[in-house]
Amino acid sequence: MLPVSLQTSFPKGMLMTQRVRITINGKLFESDVEPRLLLTDFIRGVAGLTGTHVGCETSICGACTILANGLAVKSCTMFAVQADGSDLVTIEGMAKDGQLHPLQQSFWEEHGLQCGYCTTGMIMCAHQLLARNATPTEAEIRDGLTGNLCRCTGYQNIVKAVQSASGKMRQTQNVAAGD
Amino acid sequence: MIAQHFEYTVATSLGEAVSLLQKYGDRAKLLAGGHSLVPMMKLRLASPEVLIDIGRLSELSYVMEENGALRIGALTTHHSIESSEVVGRGCRSLAEAAGEIGDIQVRNKGTIGGSVAHADPAADYPATLLAFDATIVTLGPRGERSIHASDFFVDMLTTALEPGEIVREIRIPVHSGRSGSAYLKFAQKASGFAICGVSAVVDLDGAGAISKVAVGITGVGNKAFRGAGTETALRGQQPSPGLLRSACEKAAAGVVALDDIHASAGYRLDLARIYARRALEKAVERAG
C-alpha cells in the first residue's frame, strides 16, 4: 500500500512504479513503488513497521535511523528503490526471543527517554557506535550521537544508557568467550 | 517532503553510467550516496527527470597508495576515508576533514565524489584537496581528464565538470620526510557545515625550516581558496609562534567573505586568520 499522499498526487495511469525487494528484520517485503517513495515511507507504509519514526524529514534529527546492510543510515534520505535488494534492521528487529536488546534494556533502566520519539533512532545509531567501538568514552558517545536530536532528556540519561549497554554487551561477550 | 516524480535507473558499470548520462543529457542527475541530492530533491530545489544510480558501482569505492600518490575512488564514503589507515598516514588532514562531515549516518552514505561534484562552499574536503594539490580525475564521452583542484572548484556549487562527465577518482600526492598536515574547523552547530575550515600542510627541511607550505580555506568565500599570502610569508622560514601569527594575518587577503545569518563577513575573515594559525601550528608539530 502506498502512503495516501502518493496515491493521490498523480492521476491514475501516470504512476510509474518499480518493483523492489527489501528484507527487513529477516522478512522479505516486495512491492511496486514509485521511485520517489522514501525508504522511511516504505518501512512504515508498505511493511507496516511504525517503530521507525519520521521527525524532521531533512536528514537532521535522526529519528528515522535504521541499519541498512549493517550501516546506520537516515531512512528519510534514501529512496526505497536505492535499497532494493538490501537487508535492513529496524527497532522491531532488535529484541530476540522476547528478550530486549541490551540497548533497549539500558534505555529503560537509565530513563534514556521521555516522550520516546527519538528513542528508536537513538538506539539504532548507538548500535552502530558500539559495533565500531565497544568501549566508547562519554565524549565519543556524545560525538557519535550528534546526528540524533532529543528535545526531552538533555541527553544525560541517553549517554548513561549507552554506557550501561556497552558494559552489558561486553559482559555477554565475555560470558560467550568463557571468561 | 515528497520529491517530484522521476524515472530511476541503475548503472551497472562506469561505462554504462557515462552512456546513460549521454543518453539523458540535462534531464538526468547522478545519484551516489544521495546526501546532497536527495535533500535538494525533497525541497524541490532540484527536480531531475531521471536519476542514474551509480551508488552500487563497488569498482569506484577504494583507497590505495601508488607511486607516491593516494588514489581514492569517487564512491568511497566519508566513513571509509575517516577510518582508512592509508589516508591517515599519507594525508591526515583529509581523514580529519572526512571525520568532521555531518554525523555517523551521513558519513556512512555520503561519498567524496558526490561531495566534490556538488561543490558546496562550506564543504570540508576542498580545503584539503587544494592544500595537497590534488587532482580530480573525470570520465566522459571523450575519455578521461585530470583536473587540478584549483581549476575544478569554479564557484559556489559550480565545478569544471562538463555535462556528461563523472568524477571517477581523487589523486593526492603524498608528502614524504618531515611533513605534517591538519584540518581544523569552526562548524555551524546545527548543520555541521564549515563556517571556516582550514587545512594546512607543512614540510620541514633538515634544518627545521619550512620548505613547503600550503593552506586551504573553506566556508569563508564563494569557493575554497589557498592562503597564498600566508604561504609566501612562511616559505623558507624557521617556524615560530610569532611568525605563524603574523603570516596568518594575510590568510584571506583579497577574499570577499560570505555574510549570512550564521556569521558576518568580518567574523569569517577573523576565523580564517585564527584557524589558519592553529592548523599550521598543528601541522608543524606533526611534521616533527
Q: What do you see in this structure?
A:
The complex is a heterodimer of chains A (179) and B (288). With 179 residues, chain A is an alpha+beta fold. Chain A has six helices and five strands; from the N terminus they run H-E-E-H-E-E-E-H-H-H-H. The longest helix of chain A has 21 residues. The N and C termini of chain A lie far apart (50 Å). Chain B is α+β, with helices and mostly antiparallel strands and 288 residues long. Chain B is built from twelve helices and 14 strands. In chain B, the strands form four sheets. In chain B, strands 4-5-10-6-7 form a five-stranded antiparallel sheet. A four-stranded antiparallel sheet of chain B has the order 11-12-13-14, sandwiched between helices. In chain B, strands 1-3-2 form a three-stranded parallel sheet, covered by helices on one side. In chain B, 53% of the residues are buried. Chain B has three domains: 47 residues, 2-Layer Sandwich (Uridine Diphospho-n-acetylenolpyruvylglucosamine Reductase, domain 2), CATH 3.30.43.10; 116 residues, Uridine Diphospho-n-acetylenolpyruvylglucosamine Reductase, domain 3 (2-Layer Sandwich); 109 residues, CO dehydrogenase flavoprotein, C-terminal domain (Enolase-like, domain 1), CATH 3.30.390.50. The interface between A and B is medium-sized, with 33 and 30 residues.
